[in-house]
């Protein structure tokens, strides 16, 4: 049984807490959150302790940490945990500054602890099925990847202000997905964007709608289509076109009841947001981390993956500003 | 080039007229209809003559007749045409009285002319694909056939009065489809029905909603689900469950535009009625009849098929009245 | 926190154990199973005790029992639990003999304890959505209900021998669903069946393929289509056709990855069997039982529902043997 | 009745010939093609004459011309027809050289004859439904348009050599569709491309896979995804995401028969190529041109539309070569 200290008792922390508790080999040992009330509720639910950061890091009973706190605390907590010899599961991103990420990863490497960066979509049964079918040769050589990723509704502007911007906050998942699926590093990137959904986002200096085009050494290309607002749920689709066919991941729908009436048929919408859509992915991600804890494998989404995705986000921003293709 | 005399210039006659004219080997030679105005319009459109029944039958230029007139004229016209040596395409049914059908078919046999009874659905590309896949062994031995057939809206009561009732008018297509797909004759039949759609239909002594269950020598069963009113278009589906899988014909949809909004997605309805849904079937049916005219093959839907479907309709009615399974 | 004693540590007992443990208001208190090894594994997993039947019934800490043991023990255990004042959740059926069911329910009534019979499909989000939409007037008056229910593969014959036969074992869920959706009791029933899937089932005196037709006071009809073997997963569909439209529940699919190649597209199959397909239903069922435990409501699937479904199964068998419609 | 002279008896000419003949107000009057044998076959089929180009242009009986000959003859034929006072239907493109297009359109304008450029997709019932729903306010303001357009298989290299390249030959349809749907002119364009499908295409100096990104004055963006080879049929999809929802045009499928077996379900592929997929569009396009002939309206796809689409193709090529966004 592995004891886990959870940093952050918010929305995403609660998802992980449930998966930690449900897994037969892990226990939610402690909750660390400066917002004591939320920490207390979560801790009580699963019979966990409240700890301070220092207590958790120093506690020899803690086998691993799950960092789901505010973004700007990630790198510091990773370094503390690494020095304390804990296995680390950290929500993306490691940090919004690439140099800081690299420093942090150097520390992790020196301490020889495993670090899993929470690119949850890699563990989604749909996307990992695409990867497996590609590797099995089902569609030959990949030629064109199209990722559609739209949030149901834009976040509040105070979130935008600390998010690092669309590319570092939202597209970062798609950058990682493109690298994961294609299995090679892009050689160029181009980004175009717009502020058309919510004027307040533009006032904050960010865009809310974007298209990214990447080219890979094989000549294959990837397109990412993003919006901060779908209006119809969490739009999470992927198409991989290869030399021998197409693999297509449709949205997972909220139900399966269809109505046929005088004028139209009506059907379900996609699952509302990440909590619903990636429920299975979060559970599979935790299952994988338990295998990492057991020492059976290295994290499928590493610190290096986190660094590369952030690098692509930075370069996308550079392309957006210059209007040119950036060679990588 | 085969010259065709068309009996009946109504809705179904007009469909056939267009197919006759569009086929490179057939010409709409003449139109016969006591309602001269409708006949004239149709004849002008395709450069055809107006003829009386006697003229058409006696005209040596007429190679074949297409009978799309009122149901109660079918058997008489078939006999006249058979005696005149014409190839015959007759809309279903031959007659509503089984004894009359048998007499008529005896005449046809004696005259040695081909007779195609217009069970249009046999020629539908969807249903004939199911038949072909079954024959190719795709699903092994058939075990359970389910036919859903609902009209968009009930006909006027004066139509009901001359229709022969739901089983002889509407289900007759499904009886033929069941025999066509299963490739064996049912050994028993059961019918249950209801008047729930339109009280006027009940007042006319008919039902508007029905379920029929047939059993076949192999042990396979077929279920037919009928209604005079869908409310959402022409509901024409079929499922054939076999020892090695399922073949499923979904409705053909009126378009392919889907909307996703805040509360629901919206999509197309099935094609509205038989003219739209079976457009390809009518064209293929005519193409097959041209092959019959050329002497290349016998009709895939024969007079005997017409007789058997009517027989099943009669026995379904007997079951409805007795509440028992009728052995055939 | 309610303490639950679980009778039966088999496949279905394990599903319930997980739901009991995951619910914040219930605890898996004890496991009762003559097969001690299985009981031990399950008890260890959730920190529960092993108890004998007598111990559990006598234990004042036990608030409710969940009976998931062999079918022939259900009625006896229900009566013991009722006399011990426990709230009762019992897997269907109460018993295979209708008279025994009625005796048992009399005892339950006398003891004034709640009894929920585990018709899990009533709690399925898809089917309960249909019921809710019907009650909200979405499709007007119900006219025709079609339930398709096919297991992925036939059970072993030794299961068939103790199952009570297809109608009492498998169709019983569909009888309950028909009553649940229609909201009225059928006035007649007809059944037709066949042994075509597995000869061993026929040798055991049972059928493996069936069609049932029921008529309701309103004139509406219901059709149930059953097979012991789909070959493509758990086929669980429902269509409710009303005076103002159709509600259609499609299968829940095992994934959402589609392949398009040179000759065909390929897609997912339905979820494999009840454990996957009704995962959400089992969780919702338990949530409902917790509300019953809290005294907030009566069970939505009662002992009477269990009795009525068994009655319909018995009458279906009578119809199968007589070949006639049975008035109810 | 309008008499039409058809220039070009090839594949696309044959489609138009059938539509001309089937329309009650138009007659295929003559066929003009230097390849006399093909012209003769087509003329015989519809009872048309063979004419030389000069004869057709001089013939006062010819009301309109349909130009479906080789691309490099279009502009010359348009000018001849314009000077002869004929209404003109010309397949895209007018010419591959933009200056030549402009000269040609000047001549047409001077002669005051109508010119319809055959952007067939504008007349497709699916895409015109999207346009109509957008205009009706169904999805609010357009924000992101995604067009997927993949041919089933690459053309032979000798076709590539005279095609003008991917953008002018294939993407030109998508440029027109983007302008048609968005209802505004793009302000910038970016293109990325690859030769990955067929090395011979690269040897010919062309690409076979491309992604184009355009931005519009409103801030909306459009993405075009092209490939010369799908491998699974003619992939013709469109998504228009607006401030109040999404409109999505799926592929039209070749049939509606689905198979469910032990390991997978199988379904239809998209219609094979443009002849099948745009059958309804070609008929609607002709119907519209008849309204133009009647003087009821101007062409919905004009010479100017042809010019603008070619201009975008040229600018896409400039972007591909420079790696930068081109301001328009």
Walk me through this protein's architecture:
- The structure is a homotetramer of 328-residue chains.
- Chain A is of the alpha/beta class and 328 residues long.
- Chain A folds into 2 domains: 2-113, NAD(P)-binding Rossmann-like Domain (Rossmann fold, 3-Layer(aba) Sandwich); 122-327, Dihydrodipicolinate Reductase, domain 2 (2-Layer Sandwich).
- Helix content of chain A is 40%, strand content 24%.
- Chain A has helices spanning 11-22, 36-46, 53-58, 74-83, 98-111, 125-135, 157-163, 166-182, 199-203, 274-277, 279-293, 303-322, and strands spanning 2-7, 26-32, 49-50, 64-67, 87-91, 115-118, 142-150, 188-194, 209-215, 221-227, 235-242, 245-249, 257-260, 265-267, 326-327.
- In chain A, the strands form 3 sheets. Chain A has a 7-stranded mixed sheet. Chain A has a 6-stranded parallel sheet with strand order 3-2-1-4-5-6, with helices on both faces.
- In chain A, helix 1 (11-22) packs across helix 11 (279-293) and helix 4 runs parallel beside helix 5.
- The first copy, chain A, is globular, with a radius of gyration of 20 Å.
- The mean pLDDT of chain A is 97.
- Chains A and D meet through strand 7, strand 8, strand 9 and strand 10 of A and strand 7, strand 8, strand 9 and strand 10 of D.
- Chains A, B, C, D: One of its GO terms (molecular function) is nucleotide binding.
- Chains A, B, C, D: Belongs to the Gfo/Idh/MocA family.
- Chains A, B, C, D: Keywords: Oxidoreductase.
- Chains A, B, C, D: Residues 2-119 form the Gfo/Idh/MocA-like oxidoreductase N-terminal domain.
- Chains A, B, C, D: Residues 127-247 form the GFO/IDH/MocA-like oxidoreductase domain.
């Amino acid at each position: 049984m592995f004891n886990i200290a959870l940093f952050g008792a918010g929305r995403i922390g609660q998802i992980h807490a449930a998966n930690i508790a449900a897994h037969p080999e892990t226990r939610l040992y402690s909750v660390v959150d400066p917002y004591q009330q939320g920490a207390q509720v979560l801790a009580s639910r699963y019979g966990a302790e409240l700890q301070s950061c220092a207590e958790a890091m120093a506690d020899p009973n803690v086998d691993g940490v799950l960092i789901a706190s505010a973004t700007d605390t990630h790198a510091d907590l990773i370094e503390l945990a690494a020095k304390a010899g804990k296995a680390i599961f950290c929500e993306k991103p490691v940090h919004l500054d690439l140099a800081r990420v690299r420093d942090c990863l150097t520390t992790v490497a020196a301490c020889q602890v495993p670090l899993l960066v929470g690119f949850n979509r890699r563990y989604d049964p749909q996307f990992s099925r695409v990867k497996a079918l590609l590797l099995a040769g089902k569609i030959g050589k990949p030629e064109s990847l199209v990722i559609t990723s739209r949030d149901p509704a834009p976040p509040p502007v105070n979130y935008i202000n600390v998010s690092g911007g669309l590319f570092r906050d939202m597209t970062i998942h798609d950058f990682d997905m493109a690298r994961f699926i294609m299995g090679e590093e892009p050689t160029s990137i181009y980004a175009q964007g717009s502020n058309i959904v919510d004027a307040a986002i533009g006032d904050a200096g960010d865009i809310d709608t974007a298209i990214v085009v990447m080219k890979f050494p094989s000549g294959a290309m990837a397109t990412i289509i993003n919006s901060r607002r779908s209006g119809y749920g969490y739009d999470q689709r992927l198409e991989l076109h290869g030399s021998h066919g197409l693999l297509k991941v449709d949205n997972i729908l909220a139900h399966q009841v269809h109505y046929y009436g005088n004028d139209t048929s009506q059907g379900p919408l996609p699952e509302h947001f990440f909590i619903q859509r990636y429920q299975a992915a979060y559970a599979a991600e935790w299952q994988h981390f338990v295998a990492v804890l057991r020492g059976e494998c290295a994290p499928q989404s590493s610190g290096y993956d986190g660094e590369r995705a952030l690098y692509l986000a930075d370069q996308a921003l550079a392309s957006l500003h210059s209007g040119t293709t950036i060679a990588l």
